[in-house]
Amino acid sequence: MDRVVELRPEFVEGLIVTLRLAAAGLFVGGAIGLAIGTALYVSRTRGIVPSRPVSVILNVLVNIMRPIPFVLILIVLQPVSRWFGISGISEGHAVVTIVFASAFGIARIVEQNLVAVDPGVLEAARAMGASRWRVVRTVLLPEACGSLILGFTYALVAIVDMTTLAGIIGVHSLGYVALTYGLRQFDWTVTAVAILIIIVIVQIGQFAGNAWARKVLRR
Amino acid sequence: MTLIELRGVSKTFPPTRKGGEPVHAVRDVDLSVEAGEIVGIVGYSGAGKSTLVRLVNALEPATSGQLFVDGTDLTTLGERQLQKVRLDIGMIFQQFNLLQSRTVWGNVAYPLEVAGVPKAEHQRRISDLLNFVGLADKAHAWPEELSGGQKQRVGIARALATSPKILLADEATSALDPETTVEVLRLLAKVNTELGITIVVITHEMDVVKTIADRVVVMEQGRIVEQGPVFEIFSAPREQATRRFVATLVDAVPDAVEIEGLRRTHGGRLLTLSFRDESVSQSAVFAEIIGRGVEFELVFGGIEDVRGRSFGHLTLELRGDAAAVDEAVRAVGALVETTEVA
Ligand SMILES: Nc1ncnc2c1ncn2[C@@H]1O[C@H](COP(=O)(O)OP(=O)(O)OP(=O)(O)O)[C@@H](O)[C@H]1O
Ligand SMILES: [Mg+2]
């Protein structure tokens, strides 16, 4: 336990980096995922703006990207980051990778939640003179809001998992702390504390997400 | 004035799967709807009723033909212009289709937002509408807190928000119980008489047509097979489909099974009288029978009232001296349409 106290600055930095990476994944990746997921939904055959080419391209892209394990994406994207002038073993690269991976993961979650929206309501809005884009903005997304919040909450667990793995390229997340000071030095207490902090982060996220969704869904 | 006019309108949906057949949902339909009337469109499931009304507010583009609403041919308009036209056409649905993410108030506000009505005017307009449909006290309720009838009232308030000229009702009462149906129909009648809004109601319930429609259009396999004033169609349906619909409302002429049942208990001569002309009173007809010393008994049928005009079919069993019965049948036949039950 003395070691944990000694490593306090490491834990604090780990926590901050983890939160920063998770926030990037959830918000930036989430926003991109929301856009891709919405595009997937509206371009469907009987969607709001049906488009076979858009639908096929997006589906192929998502299907290729999603199954790739995160660790591999982390490595495969290194040249891309470098091309943008970001070092392949920096927090910047971790952000790029997490945003990329979470965007594709969240895209499918978004699409699934949008499919569940009652098409009758969308039709009613169109009958009231709303443009397609307005239907998406003012009906589709608000109607799906509650389940989207639950979907994003679910994605949070996967994103925190990604921040841990980012530790292997030396990014100072809680995963790095556990890896470097815990596992490699056979200090199980350090590892356990890192895990505990991660569990707490996920729990808080889960609780907040559930509460918010309950408020939006009114049940 | 003709408000809606369809000329040779067809709608064909492409096959839903590869190698399938295209669906001819609406075929070569000619129809006009006059301003201020209530038209009922009836037909069995899949007849193309919903598709037909969705052509009227251009939710679906017609495959061919011309479609005029208030003098403008919708088939020549672009999406932006169609959005303007839709503000003039309200629509209500079987499943109400209220926005779950908004309260009653928010639902009625939606079309006002779409139409760009200034926020300052929302308050008054929405209160007026909710008062009109009798839901002023539910303004801040969520859709799931309402009964079916209340939801449809919100649907109606929402459809009326932009003061449309036309209201399209697609099976608007089909999810409601009979009592609530009557209430909603009464509200629709009020929309028609007080606001002068032209209404097109789609239904498979003849009761609905009978209660509020002026005119009825019968559809079968995408075509209009019969149309006319409700009384004319109800009292003298020509087409098979129409007859079946009318039969759901009035016990017309007994069918084979019913005749068999009647025969079992009634030995006399069976004659069906069809009343539809008010100039011939039932008492005059019965007087012809009684006057000849023939006894009769009412064994089947019924009389319906359509907005103060009655029609119907009564099957009588006539008993007595054969010659007198013959005489009576002939005399009655001169007054009303009769059918001998074999
Ligand atoms: N978007 C569509 N794509 C393909 N076929 C369609 C589509 N909409 C309707 N149809 C087909 O068109 C035909 C007419 O359908 P429509 O919904 O107009 O019938 P309806 O008279 O309203 O029936 P119901 O009483 O069941 O509502 C049906 O065969 C239906 O399957
Ligand atoms: Mg229908």
From TrEMBL, chain A:
Gene3D superfamilies: MetI-like (1.10.3720.10). Keywords: Cell membrane, Membrane, Transmembrane, Transmembrane helix, Transport. It is found in: Cell membrane. It comes from the Bacteria. The keyword Protein biosynthesis does not apply. CDD domains: TM_PBP2 (cd06261). Residues 15-208 form the ABC transmembrane type-1 domain. The keyword Amino-acid biosynthesis does not apply. It holds the Pfam family BPD_transp_1. PROSITE patterns: ABC_TM1. One of its GO terms (cellular component) is plasma membrane. It is a multi-pass membrane protein. One of its GO terms (biological process) is D-methionine transmembrane transport. Coiled coil: none annotated. The chain crosses the membrane at residues 20-42, 54-77, 83-106, 147-170, 190-213. Belongs to the binding-protein-dependent transport system permease family. This is ABC transporter permease subunit.
Automatic annotation (TrEMBL), chain B:
Residues 4-246 form the ABC transporter domain. The keyword Transport applies. GO terms for molecular function: ATP binding; ATP hydrolysis activity. It holds the Pfam family ABC_tran. InterPro entries: AAA+_ATPase (IPR003593), ABC_transporter-like_ATP-bd (IPR003439), ABC_transporter-like_CS (IPR017871), ACT-like_dom_sf (IPR045865), MetN_ABC (IPR041701), MetN_ABC_transporter-like (IPR050086), NIL_domain (IPR018449), P-loop_NTPase (IPR027417). GO terms for biological process: amino acid transport. Keywords: Amino-acid transport, ATP-binding, Cell membrane, Membrane, Nucleotide-binding, Translocase, Transport. One of its GO terms (cellular component) is plasma membrane. Gene3D superfamilies: 3.30.70.260, P-loop containing nucleotide triphosphate hydrolases. Transmembrane segments: none annotated. The keyword Ligase does not apply. Belongs to the ABC transporter superfamily. Homodimer. Forms a membrane-associated complex with FtsX. Part of the ABC transporter FtsEX involved in cellular division. Has ATPase activity. This is ATP-binding cassette domain-containing protein. It comes from Aeromicrobium endophyticum.
